[in-house]
Every structure is written in C-alpha cells, then in structure tokens.
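Section 4.2 – Deliverable D4.2 (structural model, holo form)

The reporting period included a commitment to supply a predicted holo structure for the target in complex with 4-fluoro-L-phenylalanine. Inputs used:
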Amino acid sequence: MKNNKNISDRGGFGSKLGFILAAAGSAVGLGNIWRFPYLAAKYGGGIFLLVYIIFAVTFGFTLMLTEIAIGRRTGKSVIGAYKAVDKRFSFLGVLAAVIPALILPYYCVIGGWVLKYMAVYVTNRGESVAAAEYISADSDAKISFFEHFIGQLGQPTIFFIIFVLLTSIAVFIGVEKGIEMISKFLMPVLLLLIVGISIYTLSLKGAGEGLKYYLLPNFEGFTFSKFLRTIAAACGQLFYSMSIAMGIMVTYGSYMRKEDSLESSVRQIEIFDTAVAFLAGLIIVPAVFIFSGGDSSALNAGPGLMFITLPKVFSSMPAGGVIGAAFFILVALAALTSSISLMETVVAVVMEKFNLSRTKSCCVVIVLTLVLGMLSVLGYSEWTDVKIFGMQILDFFDFSTNNLMMPVLAFLTCILIGYSVKTKYIEEEVMLGEKRFRSKLLYSVMIKFVCPVCMLMILITPFVTDI
Ligand code: PFF
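Output (structure tokens):
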C-alpha cells in the first residue's frame, strides 16, 4: 500500500473505489429510502427534486469536501482532527464525537425494526403484516402490526441487539478488510435491488400518474412561504442524507489515500447518494399512488409510511411478497452500511483517546450503544409515559442531534474554515490528488457565505412554524 504513515498506523482504505463505496454506503441509508420520497411528494414533486439537486452540487459538495479534507489532512479521529485544525475549535471534535454516539443507538433500534420486517417477508409472511390488527392494551383502539410490534419489549430488543452485532462485525475486522470489503460487496447488491424494484413498480398499471406527480413541478398552492419551507426541507434532507456533520466523513477521510482525487470522489459519492434517493422515490411514490387511488396524503411522514402503508401496498400488488422481501433486504443493507460508519466514527475516537485496541474499543462502543438504544426501545413499550420536552425518547435523540447539534457543528465548521484557518487549508489538501481544484471559487463562496446561512435556516425552521 502506498498510504501515508498516519493512515497505515490506523488502517485505511486500500483503493479509491473502496473509499467511495464505503462513504456512499454511509450516505445511502434510511434517509434516502423513506425520507426523501415523502419530502419530494410533500414539497411539489419536481420543484423539490430541482432544489435538492442544486443544493447537492453546491452546499452538499462543499460540506462533504470540507469534512473529508479535514480528516485526510489531519489523519486523526474527530477529536484529534478538529484540535489539529485549530486548537480554539477543539470543542467541535467533542461535539462531532457525541453526535454519532447518540445517533448510533436509535438508528440501530430502527435497523432492528427493518430486520424484523425483512425476516417476516423473507419467510413469506408479508400478508399477515398488512392485514393484522390488534387491540391496544390501554385504549381498546385498533392498532397495526407495527404499533403492536414496537409496543413490545422482547422482540424489538432482540432485533435491536442482532442489528448492533451485525454492525459491529465490519468494525471489529477493521477498515480495509472489514468496512471496505463489505461495502464493495453490499453496495452493488443494493444498487441492483433498487433498480430492479423500481423497474417493476413503474411497469404496474397506473404508475404513470404517480410518476407525473413525482417528477413534474406542482405549483398548486405554491406560495412564497411554501417555497421557503421547500428550501429548508431540501437543505435539511441533504444534510441528513449525506451523513454530514456527524463526524463520519472526517473519520472516513482520515483513512483515504493521499494520492486519490478528493474532488472527484466527493462528486461520485454525491451522485450515488442522490441516485438512490431518486430511485427510492420512483418506487414509493407511484406504488403508494396506485394503491391509494391518487391520494397523496397516503405518502405521509415518519415510520408509518415504510412500516404501515408500504406493506399494504405490497399486498395489493402482483408478486408483492417477493417485492416486499427485496425491498426490506434493500432497506436493511442501506441501514447497515450507515450504522457501520456511525460505529466506526465512535470506535476511532475511543481507540485514539483512550489508547485502546480496536477490539476493546468496539466492545466499549457496543455496550454504550446497547444501553442508550434500550432507552429508545423502552420509550415505545414500558415507558410510553416518559416524554422529554414532549417527545418520545427516540424522537428526542433524533431531534437533538439532527435539528440542533448537527447544524451547530456544520455552522461552526464553516466559520473555522472560512474565517479562521481560511479556505487555503482545504485547497492545499485537494491539490494533493489533482492538478487543479475545479470548484475553488464555488467552494470559497459556499463555505464563507451560503453554507452558514443555510445552517442558520435549518436551525431556525423547526422553531418557526409558519415562515
Ligand atoms: N445518511 C444516512 C441516511 O440517510 O440514513 C445515515 C444517517 C443520517 C444516519 C442521519 C443518521 C442520521 F441521523
């Protein structure tokens, strides 16, 4: 390997393709599959797609490039990396370590739900999920299979533990032989599955109407306030989707080879991530549209879309059992490669900070994840009365990281690069792997002016209901 010393000490990716697939694996996750299609449907179809793509190639590109370059230049885990860039900003490293440590547990809880659905569909019991109705223990109301499932303690705990252990396999093995190998195998499988399922759903009768709804701009009721909300939603989604501001890209960047091109790698990761989100929309929007007879409200938010509506959609379509199985395998793979990157980020910090071996650090992180994740599992079963600021425990973890800590981290990272160490810090790193930095001007304008404003907008939006 031609890796520099920093990298070879801690392990590193053996090829550019390996790095791109691992980073794309991190980016492509639950966010692409259920969050993107529902947002696109809600915010005017084609309008959202267009705004999203413009943001991806400008704002997303800038933030991702910044993080990967910081990681590669310093060759350290997040805590050491931010400290090495500028001592005064060391606290950002701590924030970048705390964020994935808080996200990983609840992400694995949702990963466990996906595994349960995958198991049900693979064993050909998909029909029962769609049709099942239960009586709620406390209100006598009818509840779905999903609500019944997450309301229990036993099964969600078991699937959560299995998901954490599956995640840890690649991290235990290491960067090149574990994460890189697994990504090189899983990402092509994921791509094949998503292309295959989207071709199938598009071939169904009536899919054309759904496709139009998804792709054509819908200006009906599109006021200025909705336009602002669309921008905020697209910005937020991009942030979520590209695994930005959770320390991951800094960590993966620290394992990247110095001779590989940063700029083209970031472009390819972006294309992969956006393509998967777009294809997920091609599956979900037309399928739900046909099923609901054109009622777009069926595309509503949250886990309900994936765990309650989609099973009904699958059971209404020919060969729905097989498609359902393929779909939940796809979602499980997407979630797994993302949780691997979250765990690796935390493990890298523990290894560096406490000077522990990879194996010992993994064990520490697994225990921490199991303890914190159980809080989210309990929040839906034994502790339904426990609310933090009026939120379920899982929602609280999600909100505090995605809506508060991540925009703050990204905002301050922009200030750090744009105004403290200056863009030269990133430019020098980009120039190592190429003859010129094509997007130099764009980068500089984005990091100094546009990205900080977008970050403030993401921060403010949830608190201002009617912009
Ligand atoms: N980027 C991944 C996704 O779209 O699901 C991973 C991820 C995003 C994990 C946001 C956690 C998170 F809060």
